[in-house]
From TrEMBL:
InterPro entries: Kinase-like_dom_sf (IPR011009), MAP_kinase_kinase_kinase (IPR050538), Prot_kinase_dom (IPR000719)
Protein name, entry field: MAP KINASE KINASE KINASE SSK2-RELATED-RELATED
Sequence similarity: Belongs to the protein kinase superfamily. STE Ser/Thr protein kinase family. MAP kinase kinase kinase subfamily.
GO molecular function, one term: ATP binding
Lineage: Eukaryota, Viridiplantae, Streptophyta, Embryophyta, Tracheophyta
One Pfam family in the UniProt entry: Pkinase
């Protein structure tokens, strides 16, 4: 296996699944809460069959700004209440808050 510790510290990867604390260098960085955020984004993707959608997300600068400020992807209304609740709990913008 390769050593990926440096890429984890740098927060490399796609912005669509990046947690606010990883995207913003002034915050905590990579950790368990950022994995949970990415899980919420992945479940959103699996449920909608497309990458997580953000308001104004097609513009890379606006997408980056939204993520750094803690705005998660749009959770579609047509999903079940149970699934929406799960996704919203995963998309906790404050990594210091309890997740579940």
């Amino acid at each position: 296996m390769e050593d990926h510790s440096q890429s984890l510290k740098l927060g490399l990867g796609s912005s669509y699944w990046t947690a606010p604390e990883v995207a913003n260098p002034k915050r905590v960085g990579y950790g368990f809460p950022s994995d949970i955020w990415s899980l919420g984004c992945t479940v959103t993707e699996m449920s909608t069959r497309k990458h997580p959608q953000y308001i104004n997300g097609e513009n890379p600068l606006k997408l980056d700004r939204a993520i750094r400020s803690g705005k998660g992807p749009v959770v579609p209304d047509y999903l079940s209440d149970t699934l929406k609740n799960f996704i919203n709990q995963c998309l906790q913008p404050d990594p210091n808050q309890p997740i579940f």
